[in-house]
């Protein structure tokens, strides 16, 4: 079939006529919100592409009272995981005919609410929050206002949430170190006001409890998720003669900071100090000593979050994805 001549606007009526279906049938087949794979729908989409038809999603959304825009709120885009999460959310939203816009809020609840209001002022159809603190009031306020929203990577246990199984991830990390023969294990978590840090620590403790050991209080450190936080924790743990033989860091940035501290103390990652990170960011496998890390399926979490937003009546409100441990050279049996 020949495309329409330049300058001729192909209409929905043209597509319906060429497909041999009604205009309403053609419209349903071309609606980005549908996933129909019937022969008729596939044929309509094929002919629309051949004709060069471009659906006016904006006009269609206005008729439905929608903007086809979603707001994504993250603490900061300088955080690798947050940047990767937004990219996956943007990709998942686009595949469903939505446009995603991002705003950053830092860790201050007041700034977070201000950023959320900024997105809502732009008439987004829903909000995705990657910022839910355990003491955060924003999800509750959104529920009271009946604002469609979902949480990603974190949960308050009430609002729709898509996240990885952080407790299982923490368990896998420490279980791996125990299986290698380590008993002197430290854990460096993220901020204690986040569900991620608490759940990963709970998983680590579960693994230690199974081995008949416990995590020493002096070797259980909480702080930020940045490289500098990892370096400070590494200095604290490795700057004494009584040091752990292995460390579980609750994200890859913390692990990289610990690597820097280990280098400063002339400790080799792997032979002298085993180290496990979390999230398996792209840099983890490319470090001078490739980092063992817990991989979180961000793409699956993103798709789930978009589904929770676009189908708010779904029964399953908290959906948890399974993480996977990726062993690399940063972990080895303890030194003799």
Describe the structure.
The protein is of the alpha/beta class. It folds into three domains: 44 residues, no CATH class; 122 residues, Rossmann fold (3-Layer(aba) Sandwich), CATH 3.40.50; 130 residues, Response regulator (Rossmann fold, 3-Layer(aba) Sandwich), CATH 3.40.50.2300. Helices cover 42% and strands 16% of the residues. The chain contains twelve helices and twelve strands. Strands 2-1-3-4-5-11 form a six-stranded parallel sheet, with helices on both faces. Strands 7-6-8-9-10-12 form a six-stranded mixed sheet, sandwiched between helices. The longest helix is centred in the first third of the chain and has 16 residues. It starts with 11 loop residues before the first helix and ends in a 10-residue tail after the last strand. The N terminus is likely disordered.
Number of helices: 12
From the 3D structure, determine the CATH topology of the largest domain.
Rossmann fold
Indicate the mean pLDDT: 88
Q: Hey, roughly how much beta strand do the residues contain?
A: 15-25%
Give start-end ranges of low-pLDDT stretches: 1-7, 57-64
Strand order of the largest sheet: 2-1-3-4-5-11
User: Which outline best applies?
Assistant: elongated
CATH architecture field of the largest domain = 3-Layer(aba) Sandwich
CA-CA gap between termini: 74 Å
CATH class of the largest domain: Alpha Beta
Rg of Cα set? 24 Å
CATH level-four homologous superfamily name of the largest domain:
Response regulator
Q: Helix/strand-derived class?
A: alpha/beta
Pfam family, one: LacI
Domain HTH lacI-type: 10-64
Keywords: DNA-binding, Isomerase, Repressor, Transcription, Transcription regulation
GO molecular function, one term: transcription cis-regulatory region binding
């Amino acid at each position: 079939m020949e495309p329409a001549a330049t300058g001729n606007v192909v209409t929905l009526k043209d597509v319906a006529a060429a497909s041999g279906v009604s205009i309403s049938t053609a419209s349903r087949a071309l609606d980005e919100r549908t996933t129909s794979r019937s022969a008729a729908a596939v044929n309509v989409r094929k002919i629309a592409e051949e004709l060069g038809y471009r659906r006016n999603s904006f006009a269609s959304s206005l008729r439905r009272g929608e903007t086809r825009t979603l707001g994504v709120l993250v603490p900061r885009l300088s955080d690798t995981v947050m940047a990767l999460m937004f990219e996956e959310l943007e990709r998942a939203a686009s595949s469903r005919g939505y446009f995603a816009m991002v705003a950053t809020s830092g860790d201050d609840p007041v700034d977070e609410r201000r950023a959320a209001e900024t997105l809502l002022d732009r008439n987004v159809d829903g909000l995705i929050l990657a910022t839910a603190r355990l003491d955060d009031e924003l999800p509750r306020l959104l529920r009271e206002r009946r604002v469609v929203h979902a949480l990603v990577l974190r949960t308050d246990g009430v609002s729709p949430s898509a996240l990885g199984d952080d407790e299982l991830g923490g368990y896998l990390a420490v279980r791996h170190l125990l299986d290698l023969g380590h008993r002197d294990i430290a854990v460096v978590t993220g901020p204690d006001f986040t569900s991620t840090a608490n759940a990963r620590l709970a998983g680590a403790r579960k693994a230690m409890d199974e081995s008949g050991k416990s995590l020493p209080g002096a070797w259980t450190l909480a702080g930020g998720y940045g490289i500098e936080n990892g370096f400070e924790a590494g200095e604290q743990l490795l700057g004494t003669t009584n040091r752990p033989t292995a460390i579980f860091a609750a994200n890859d940035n913390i692990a990289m900071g610990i690597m820097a501290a280990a280098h400063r103390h002339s400790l080799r990652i792997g032979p002298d100090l085993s180290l496990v990170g979390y999230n398996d960011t792209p840099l983890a496998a490319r470090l001078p000593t490739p980092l063992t890390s817990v991989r979180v399926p961000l793409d699956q979490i993103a798709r789930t979050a978009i589904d929770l937003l676009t189908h708010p009546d779904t029964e399953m409100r908290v959906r948890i994805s399974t993480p996977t441990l990726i062993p690399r050279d940063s972990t080895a049996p303890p030194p003799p």
